[in-house]
Structures are given as C-alpha cells and as structure tokens.
Amino acid sequence: MSPTDLGAARAEWRFPNRATPPGSAAYYSIRLAPFASRDDLAALFGWRGEVRRILAEVRDPGVARLKLDWWRDELQRTLAQVPRHPLSQVLAPVIVSHQLPADPFLDMAGQVEATLRAQHSPDEPAWVAAAEADLGALFELLARCQGVVAAPALTAARRCGGWCARVRWLRDGGLLLRRGHPVLPLSRLQAAGLSAAALTDPAGRHQLPALLVPLAAVLAAGRPAAADLAGLPRMLHVQVRIHVGLLEELRRSRLEVVDQRIGLTPLHKLWLAWRG
To answer: Would residue 247 count as lying in a domain?
Structure first.
C-alpha cells in the first residue's frame, strides 16, 4: 500500500467513521465532546464496531472465530506499537496517550465470542455482566479517553454502558433471534416455561414481546440517575439520554420487535442530545 493509500485508509477511521455515522447516537455524542478528542473517541467506537461486525457478516462459526482471534492478536500488536490494520494505526497513539488498558478491549471481544457460541446468560445478574462487558467496556474506554481515572467513576461508566446495551438488546430482539443469538437470560425463559430453542422457532417468536415488556419495565425503573452520571463526560450523558428515549419508544410499541426494528429518528436523537 502506497503512503497515499495508507493515509486515506487511516483517515477512514477518523470522525465520523462507519461506526459513528451521521444520525447515530455515537455521532451526536461525539459531536458534543471536545473537538480535540473526537477522532480518538471515534477510533474506540470503530474497534468495537469491527469486532461486532463479525456477528453480522460472518455465517461460518469457524471463520468468525478466526476473525475474532485475528483482532485479539491485532490488539496485542497495537499495544506493542506494531499495528497492521489502519484502524489500529489510528488507535495505537490513542492507547499510549490515554494509557488505555487492554482488558476493556478483551472484554468486548469476549462478549462477541460468547454470542458466537450462543452462550445464554443463566440469570439476570449474568445478563447485566454480559452487557457491561460489551458496551460497558466501551464506555469505560470513552471515559478514560476524556481524563476519567477514578475507579468509582469508571465503574459508573461501565454500568451506564451496560444499561444502554440492554436497551439495545431489547430493540434488536427479533433480529438477534433470527440470527440465533441469545436475547434473554435463561431464568426468564424458564419462568415462562420456554426453552431457548422454542423461542427461536418461527412459531414461538410471537411470544418474545410478552417476555420483553417486563424487562423493559425493570430497565425503566433502574435507568441511570444524575448521581450515577456525576463526574462522567458529557458524551456519556448524551448516550444515556438517547437510550432513555429509545426505551420509552420501545415501551410505547409494547416491544413489538419480532419483525421490525424500532428506533429514533436522527432529529429526535439530536433533540435529546442537545436538550441537556
């Protein structure tokens, strides 16, 4: 690859990139972050986007695991400052500048592997932990990238990200089922007298909304409060506000997500982002 081509490839991962496209919650939250940090934040979203893209684009489980292992190896190369991928070449100085640890990246990759293996969370605490290992880990990195170093604040960032992830899982429930990915903790299925296989069957998918409605109520009651967000960067406040709006929209629809994807318009997201 010529220096010109390499420069263009690296530029592809600066803000906005394909993980932070205009109109997305990620885009609006980064737009309200300090200008100097926007490319760094977009690169972090990009890393999660690339490992999560394996779930959507690779149908062969063996190939998917090979791709995931490549990204894990690439993370180690990036930490050693010998990255290969253009995204990693953008991310390497970000990791050094903000002293970002490897564990949150590995947590996100581990959650992708658990999804590939169709590992259902046995109960709600495990379901929460899985969410915090996904978007929660990203939120921790985003907070660190903006100067947050106190352990309680980093824990709060993880919890807020985990809450947002669970809202997304409700939104994507129908899509996840069609792909054969876990949606609910097994304890919820067992309480309803269902197996995971029964819910993925086309004849059983219609039962999904009735299972999601009480989970949405739990999320609404436990949404991050002002005290949970104290000391966190503005962009994480924006993320939470947008996901609160998404949850409200899902509840208005009675979680009818089996055959449709319910979301917010870009204008609605923008209004929620600027409101605070």
So the answer is: yes
Torsion of CA 172, 178, 182, 183, to 10 degrees: 40
Token representation of residue 224: 């991050």
Backbone CA torsion sign across 203, 208, 209, 211: positive
Please state the domain count of the chain: 1
* 125 located within any domain: yes
pLDDT in tens, the chain (276 residues): 444 544 666 789 999 999 999 999 999 999 999 999 999 999 999 999 999 999 999 989 899 999 999 999 999 999 999 999 999 999 999 999 999 999 999 999 999 999 999 888 999 999 999 999 999 999 999 999 999 999 999 999 999 999 999 999 999 999 998 888 889 999 999 998 888 888 877 777 889 999 999 999 999 999 999 999 999 999 999 999 999 999 999 999 999 999 999 999 999 999 999 986
Read off the amino acid at residue 90.
Answer: V
- Round the CA-based radius of gyration of the chain to a whole number and report it: 19
Cβ atoms of 106 and 116 closer than 8 Å:
no
In a domain, 204, yes or no: yes
CATH number at residue 204: 1.10.600.10
Domain boundaries, position 199: 30-275
* Eight-class DSSP state of 144: H
